[in-house]
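haha ok so turns out i had the wrong file open the whole time. this is the CORRECT one, sorry everyone. sequence first:
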Amino acid sequence: MSRITRALRMLATGAAASALMLPGYASADHHSTTGASMTQTAEIAPLIPREALFGNPSRAQGRISPDGKWLSWLAPENGVLNIWLAPADDPDNARVITSADDRPIREHFWAPDSLSVGYIQDKGGDENFLLYRIDVETLEETTLTPFENTRVQIIGSSETIKDKILIGVNNRDPQYHDVHLLDLNTGEIELVYENNAYAGFMADDTLTLRMAMAQNEAGGTDYFRVNDNVVEDEPFETTAMEDSLTTSPAGYTTDGSILYWLDSRDRNTAALYAQDTGTGERELIAENDKADIGGTIRDPQTGVVEAYSVNYLKNEWTATDPDLRDALAFLDDRLEGEWGISSRTDDDRTWIVWNDTVSAPSKTYIYDRDAGTLTEFYVSRPELEGAPLMPMHPIEIASRDGLTLPSYLTLPVGSDADGDGRPDEAVPMILFVHGGPWARDGYGQNPVHQMFANRGYAVLSVNFRGSTGFGKDFLNAANKQWGLKMHDDLIDAVDWAIAEGIAIEDEVAIMGGSYGGYATLAGLTFTPEKFACGVDIVGPSNLETLLSTIPPYWAPLVKIFHERMGDPNTEEGKALLRAASPLYKADQITKPLLIGQGANDPRVKQSESDQIVSAMQEAGIPVTYVLYPDEGHGFAKPANNMAFWAITENFLAECLGGRAEGFGDVLEPSTAEIVEGEEYVQGLEDALGG
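then structure:
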């Protein structure tokens, strides 16, 4: 898989955070309130400003052009993240090359020929991402996919055909992406394959379609060979539903002779295999009994795997190529914590390397392999230098039925004198639940963990069953267990924290986004005695309506939702979905609830929040509801994001008694609409001028 394909298959939205006192950290603009449960050390520790954690980074996403002549990165221009460019031999001679003035650019990439930089952008969070190009010499910007209500999909790019890529666009039929050949320099688009059946495609380095993928009746995936743009009738590989999220092709070598697979068939964890495309024979390259093989490092010229990663509690790389092994050892000797390669030149002699130590701001370096030098490129958030950032403790928690839940704990500043990962006395705690649910929490800097540890809370993130990366048995243990065993895992983690003397029994909040928002609603409706309050960010309240309003481009994969959640087309499935929907138990909510929602969310519609708020209003139950008219599935604009975290930390201070930075004027640049319940958040009415 090439660099451009990897770059555009997901949006990077990570943030950095870490913590001693800097001038200005306790300024008048950062006043706080403190509850009785705060430790004395935590009370006198400097308050880390929200801006330092959730505002724009100074720089992010460093890249080097394939020819090694240019450096690029994201940085603010007039308060909005834009793309910057500088000669590789003169990094200080930088210029901004985009003019985004509303939504930040969150992902950028280099064209294989190094003549242009590209990015994708949607409108108001609607996730209809279009593709844009900036010529590095003229700085002229072109919309390469000038369509309305269209989501671009990258099918493939090439290390040898450097001026073209294959893209999918769903402007003809929103459910299916037709494959087109796009000339990156002229903008010419040529139809390659009209798609009326397949969820995805894979191409080789010649930009020839080699594979089509479709969901089968069992909820697994069928893989079909493509010859001369004709899809064969019978699949050459297939997976059952149980392997559908842990088995996938990982790309061809440049000559097309080898197809790599991450494969859990006939085993538990996904292993790395090399399949001869001529004979079909497979060779096992790597496996791990605790976690799936996660990623690979490939030779830029040949596409041959040179290293692979395994991420159980932390990410670890193993090299299969001797030269690469020496390079990884060089970096291991010089960098602490987690690190990774974000960009490489075509000759593979210069790398851009990021480094995350958790307890300091993340840094990015330029690694010259020939000179043996590691030169600092930038610090992402220099304002966090010397801030009281706390370590993250990887832990294992046992579920009631014997599963091991890989988890991460961050403790309040000053609470753990001997550094053993247990506070000297129990503290208030926030259970921070990841989205997906077919995703995972990992080790590293986390601004949510850092902010709330700084405010006086322990923060616990749990990889509950259904989380990815830990094998298919762990993943499939969550099938049709929304609100049941998946929720039990979260309760077991809270009980563990209480038993270990980490959390105070009556002072635990639950919070999360997407599935984490659902888990919050489930926590306050199914087990209202367990939590003191909750924060739901774009979480579904009614699983029936959630499945009936999925984006059209998810339709080819809808079977997997039905098999893993419940099929609304059957009475049994409908009953399961209804029983797991917090909406129908809204009258059981007895604890404070804060809800944040984007009006343009295509995944979890605004109606998901509207309906549970209405149910609570009808039952006379207090709720605070914040709506953003210009956001989607999460809050991309820093002003909106910071406004919501300001409301959140003051809401939690009211509930749990921790510290909170005052509102100041944080709401003014935000589009936040307080639909309901401003009186339930300390300081919010005053901040609104009420």
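The CA atoms of residues 507 and 683 lie 21 Å apart.
again sry for the mixup
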